[in-house]
Every structure is written in structure tokens, then in C-alpha cells.
Write a structure and sequence with these properties.
This protein is α+β, with helices and mostly antiparallel strands. It is about 30% helix and about 30% strand.
């Protein structure tokens, strides 16, 4: 998403930022970015960028999950989140050291393989890492005899999809149900607290968390985001785990 975030709706209250990005105006007062971060940002652990964010530049924040889920129901977006909550009950269970090591080694191998393949495709077609849309066009010319490319989340260590990157493979769809792949520790791939922007493909969506094993504040998104910090605060350089659908 190349569009700047122009508004935030936090617990139902609207905030907008000035053209010079220095002041934020809310229903009761005007803030500097630093004041806004202190007074509002730290009280909003849940952010959502729904599909329309790509067009209207508005994201939504909530001080607790109950308020967030009420909003999702009003927007007819709760069904998938409800399934996600059931998934979380499974993946947050305690695991033995052997199980944890198995997950780690499998994911390191898979992400290294997928990121390397992504780089090779970019080089072959003379594309830049942010040109995900161009890759989707290339996939239209596919061979139906082979397995098709999965949905994916791409994380970059600089804003505007620059710098180092990793590709996190998403889940698949089976009998009308969408499955996910969960990444409990981005440190496995040298990307803990490093992501500054992200892109998704093929109508993917996902969750990013500030803590390992899907704990802490989280961001539920359907769109590309060129800067994970918004008006001086947000999720830039603070992501430690992710789930990709």
C-alpha cells in the first residue's frame, strides 16, 4: 500500500495528521507526534488495517480485544478472526524442548529456501523486492500439472519495502476453509524486531505480534504497509512472531 495513513479511528474517536506530519488532531485536542505516542499509542495494543485501508488510508485501533471484536462484528469481519482464536488455542499449548527444536529447524530450512527462491525469481525477471504485483502477473502463466505458488507475507527491514527481506509462506485452502502457517519466533531467521514494512500477495492476510509465540500487542492486516510505524508509533522494529493466512 503506497497510500499514506491519513486517519486513525481509536476506540471510535477519529484522529488525523497534518500534511507536514508534525501534528495530530483529535476530537478534543491537538498533539505532537511524541505527545500522541505517549497519550494514545501506548494505550492501543490492537491495530487493524482492513481491505479498504488500501484506498482510504484509515487504520483502526482498540484499547482492548472486546472493543475490537465488537467492531469486527459490525463490519462483518469477525468470522475469520473467530477461527483464528480457535487456532490460537492449539498453537499456544506448551511443547517439549524436542518439539520446539523440530519447529525451529523445519522453519529455518523452509524460510531460507523460500527467500532464496524469491530472490532468484526477482533476479531472473529483473525485478525489485517490492514488485510483488509483477510476480503475481508472472504466475498467471502457470503449468496446471504442478503445485501452484502459496500465499505469502514478505517482511522488509526498511520502510517502503527496502533493505533485507524474508518470505514467510502462508497457508493453503482446502474444501473452502483457509489454513495458516504460524511463525513463533522471527529470530529463527534473524528478523526479530527488524521488520519496518511488509507486503502480502494473493489476497493473503495475517497477524503480527510484538512478542514471541504470539504474545503482546498485535496487528491484524489485509494490505501492504510501507511503514509499520504510524505517526511516531506502531509496530516498526518490534515484530517477533507472525501468522500468515
Amino acid at each position: 500500500m503506497a497510500k499514506e495513513i491519513s486517519k486513525m479511528i481509536l476506540d471510535g474517536e477519529e484522529y488525523s495528521i497534518s500534511e507536514d506530519q508534525k501534528h495530530i488532531t483529535g476530537p478534543k485536542k491537538k498533539y505532537t507526534q511524541e505527545d500522541f505516542k505517549e497519550e494514545k499509542g501506548k494505550k492501543i495494543p490492537f491495530l487493524i488495517a482492513p481491505p479498504e485501508t488500501a484506498k482510504d488510508g484509515i487504520i483502526y485501533g482498540f484499547s482492548d480485544e472486546e472493543k475490537m471484536e465488537k467492531w469486527l462484528k459490525e463490519k462483518n469481519l469477525f468470522k475469520e478472526h473467530e477461527k483464528h482464536k480457535e487456532l490460537m488455542k492449539k498453537i499456544k499449548k506448551e511443547r517439549s524442548p524436542e518439539e520446539l527444536e523440530k519447529i525451529k529447524q523445519y522453519q529455518i530450512k523452509q524460510v531460507e529456501k523460500d527467500t532464496k527462491k524469491f530472490t532468484e525469481i526477482l533476479e531472473k525477471h529483473n525485478l525489485k523486492p517490492e514488485q510483488i504485483d509483477e510476480l503475481e502477473k508472472l504466475s498467471e502463466d502457470y503449468d496446471p500439472h504442478f503445485k501452484q505458488k502459496p500465499r505469502s507475507l514478505y517482511l522488509y527491514d526498511r520502510v517502503w519495502w527496502g533493505g533485507l527481506y524474508i518470505k514467510l509462506r502462508g497457508g493453503h485452502q482446502y474444501c473452502g476453509k483457509r489454513y495458516s502457517i504460524a511463525y513463533p519466533d522471527l529470530g529463527y531467521f534473524g528478523f526479530d524486531n527488524k521488520a519496518s514494512s511488509l507486503k502480502i500477495n494473493c489476497s493473503s492476510y495475517g497477524y503480527i505480534y510484538t512478542d514471541k509465540w504470539y504474545k503482546g500487542a498485535y496487528f491484524y492486516f489485509w494490505v501492504n504497509l510501507h511503514d509499520l510505524n504510524f505517526w511516531g508509533w506502531g509496530f516498526g522494529n518490534s515484530i517477533s512472531s507472525a501468522i500468515v493466512y
